[in-house]
């Protein structure tokens, strides 16, 4: 790996490898468009997000402003929402990458440094996050009944509530990460924000330790992540039980044991070895089934792009 | 279209849409890898070329240095040659885009302005062009017997010959564009350099006037370009007759008439209407046949990326 590789280039490549990874059941990938979402829109979104990613990799803009700029550029190019969730994860990862509080470059991108970035997020970052929803339609679940005034679909109108209550972006995401209702599926991207990105760093190691083209490794990591936990977007657009069953079907494709019968496992319980032996041929059938059933595990794809970014920073290379 | 779109982003997107365009018979595309060349390498190459493309869009570097930097970055990321020819076309197109000799932005990217850029190329640009061959293996034909000292595979060793003879980059490419031997297939990329990019601008209009996803439009433009003229890389890696027959087979897929029996037509003779009615289903079979026969019309893919860039600058958009 070239020591001087630009983290913004790595983030762009992570977005491209994520959408190219195939099969990623239920998602747009190199071999599949969805009815209302095309592969080329993701190429446009990855290119359009550039300015926001560049801002994230400097200290000239806040994390919230960088995110909003990335979403606006993505939406302008793609004409639709392609990578909103990916950017929510990549922006703090980029900021942690360039944070020079730790002196060694190798130490810059760790759970600790990215956790510090999210702890540093402000109320203004929360306001920018809400503004980002004005650039594009994002599929989200209704908020809990007692948090209607924090519905992200309010966009800028939520600013006064955020300021009155002094809620930072991390505070806002903490609500989605840990819903009071046990029947609600937590927002995985929000969980990453408040938990130090455990899924991202774990899946990055799955990708690094795997072999073959990065697009295949990304597809296997996607299956591992989906097997581990029900997908937020599937729960929001169907229901939590559908999301749990989708994860159990992904778990059945992993190598070893019979995790399928047990339903989704914990992330911690999924071993790299099972991910590396995931059956991509069988995943082709699941991809067809998920598309037919309208099951779109988009949050799991977001996590996959974040994991690819960390894997690239740690030396993963495209296959020549 | 956003008026403020960054030409470097457009060039990156052109590289991505080119490789995603499918079917492009004989080339890597969204649905096909070749044995020794993968789709993900092209994603890496497009990202790695960024710094060179940025230099091309400023006046801080010469056209030759920007090209060499782009090739070096591409090779570092892709680990192989993915877009050498694309970059040779995109670099002067980018320079023409930002040239402010013409006052109106709309007037900046025309055959006239890009011709001025190539006329301004220097001996140093030629030396940089030769250096670029040291970063990566590029498939080229043997030079004419009387030009062995100008074999591009000599790399930096050719510098003294170039300087002694005062050959600019345009002079060097003029030799490949118009070989004395009538049995040699001219280098199409070199022809673009010395002729004001007629294939690029013509195919850009095919793409702009076409409908549907840009990846489909790119595939149809590729067939039109291949039908019009034998591919340089096919001639170099097989022979001119194989290249002519490959073009005739592409011509048979265009709409209207029976151009297939007549062999390749002139670019001027191919009408947008025939390109827009190209049969992409039939092209799938041709793609399989070309891969089986080892026919790789890579120069035609280079022209397609250049045409996509011009089409994007003139308002073409990815499909939402």
From TrEMBL, chains A, B:
GO molecular function, one term: triphosphoribosyl-dephospho-CoA synthase activity
InterPro entries cross-referenced by the UniProt entry: CitG
Record Pfam families: CitG
Keyword Transferase belongs to the record: yes
Statement: the UniProt record of this protein carries the keyword Cytoplasm: no
Keywords: Glycosyltransferase, Transferase
EC number, UniProt record: 2.4.2.52
Protein name per the record: Triphosphoribosyl-dephospho-CoA synthase
């Amino acid at each position: 790996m070239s020591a001087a590789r630009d983290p913004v280039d790595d983030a762009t490549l992570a977005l491209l490898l994520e959408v190219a990874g195939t099969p990623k059941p239920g998602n747009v990938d190199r071999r599949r468009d969805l009815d209302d979402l095309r592969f080329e829109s993701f190429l446009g979104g990855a290119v359009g997000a550039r300015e926001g990613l560049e801002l994230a990799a400097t200290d000239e803009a806040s994390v919230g402003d960088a995110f909003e700029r990335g979403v606006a550029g993505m939406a302008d190019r793609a004409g639709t929402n392609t990578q909103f969730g990916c950017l929510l994860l990549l922006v703090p990862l980029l900021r942690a990458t360039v944070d020079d509080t730790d002196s060694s470059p190798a130490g810059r991108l760790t759970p600790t440094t990215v956790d510090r970035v999210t702890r540093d997020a402000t109320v203004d970052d929360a306001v920018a996050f809400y503004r980002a929803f004005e650039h594009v339609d994002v599929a989200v679940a209704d908020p809990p009944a007692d948090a209607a005034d924090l519905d992200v679909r309010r966009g800028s109108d939520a600013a006064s509530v955020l300021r009155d209550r002094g809620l930072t972006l991390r505070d806002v995401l903490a609500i989605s990460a840990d819903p009071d209702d046990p029947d609600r599926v937590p927002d995985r991207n929000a969980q990453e924000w408040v938990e130090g990105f455990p899924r991202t760093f774990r899946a990055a190691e799955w990708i690094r330790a795997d072999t073959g083209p990065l697009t295949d490794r990304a597809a296997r990591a996607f299956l591992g992540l989906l097997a581990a936990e029900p997908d937020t977007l599937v729960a929001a657009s169907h229901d939590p039980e559908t999301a749990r069953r989708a994860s159990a079907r992904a778990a059945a494709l992993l190598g070893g044991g019979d995790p399928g019968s047990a339903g989704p496992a914990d992330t911690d319980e999924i071993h790299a070895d099972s991910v590396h032996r995931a059956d991509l041929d069988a995943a082709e059938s699941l991809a067809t089934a998920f598309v037919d059933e309208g099951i779109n595990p988009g949050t799991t794809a977001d996590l996959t792009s974040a994991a690819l970014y960390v894997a690239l920073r740690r030396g993963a290379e495209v296959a020549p």
